[in-house]
Q: What sequence folds into this?
């Protein structure tokens, strides 16, 4: 037990360190300390409550804190494996280019946001020194793209002066964002089903695929309903914490999956199969 626990210490430390990089020292914070960015946040119904936009923290104070975090993160980087350091470098490069220039370039800006989450997933594989599964990375990327486009659509609907808050929205239209969402939804659903099949095959529990399929479809359909009905999908975390239908779906999915796994281990499905009617092939 101790040896197995020790095997998790270094990957856990590496993963926590990467999250500290991505969460504490996020280069996009540099743009938030500029007066134009603060003024744009004040036009957003949700972002106007942020410390800088609300005036709770001054730009000079935020820069001091960012400098302290930068020094701490630089020291922490020396303790990370080389591959994690490379991923951190790519992540910082993506955020710097996004913050300083590319957030005003249509299509590229939403792809960069999704790429950041894909890099986080890749860092998790690197922490355990395993090769990233391309289908998992594709699921994370396309799922992040789906949520990002949904957020853009919600901003266009809710913020009265949306192009002043986020100028890139001037290049989009509701119908175009709807088309982007459909593409991202199909990509996310397809790749997630491949990942699910890989998991159930590895566990030799294919019954879990059929148990999970209706719940996965319900989650996708529910999210699209919330987005297109205009009831609020700008904050996916808030949606998950407030939507009772999504919560009930996740709880029921977890419960039935556990029950199906227990029945499979007890070989109940094999016993039931012996009572199934035989259909002649010819």
A:
């Amino acid at each position: 037990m101790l040896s197995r626990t020790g095997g998790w210490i270094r990957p856990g430390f590496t993963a926590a360190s990467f999250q500290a990089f991505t969460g504490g020292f996020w280069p996009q914070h540099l743009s938030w300390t500029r007066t134009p960015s603060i003024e744009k946040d004040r036009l957003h119904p949700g972002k106007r409550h942020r410390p800088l936009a609300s005036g709770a923290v001054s730009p000079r104070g935020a820069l001091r804190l960012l400098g302290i975090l930068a020094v701490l993160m630089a020291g922490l980087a020396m303790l990370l494996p080389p591959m994690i350091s490379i991923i951190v470098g790519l992540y910082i490069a993506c955020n710097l280019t996004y913050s300083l220039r590319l957030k005003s370039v249509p299509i590229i800006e939403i792809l960069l946001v999704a790429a950041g989450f894909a890099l986080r997933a890749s860092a998790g594989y690197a922490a355990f020194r395993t090769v990233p599964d391309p289908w998992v990375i594709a699921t994370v990327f396309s799922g992040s793209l789906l949520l990002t486009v949904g957020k853009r659509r919600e901003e266009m609907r809710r913020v009265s002066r949306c192009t002043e808050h986020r100028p890139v929205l001037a290049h989009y239209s509701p119908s175009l964002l709807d088309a982007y969402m459909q593409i991202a939804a199909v990509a996310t659903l397809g790749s997630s089903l491949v990942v699910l099949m890989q998991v159930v095959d590895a566990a030799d529990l294919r019954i879990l695929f059929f148990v999970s399929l209706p719940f996965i479809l319900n989650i996708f359909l529910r999210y699209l309903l919330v987005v297109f009905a205009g009831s609020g999908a700008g904050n996916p975390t808030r949606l998950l914490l407030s939507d009772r239908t999504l919560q009930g779906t996740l709880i029921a999915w977890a419960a039935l999956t556990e029950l199906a796994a227990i029945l499979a281990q007890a070989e109940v499905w094999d016993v039931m199969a012996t009572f199934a009617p035989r259909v002649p092939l010819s």
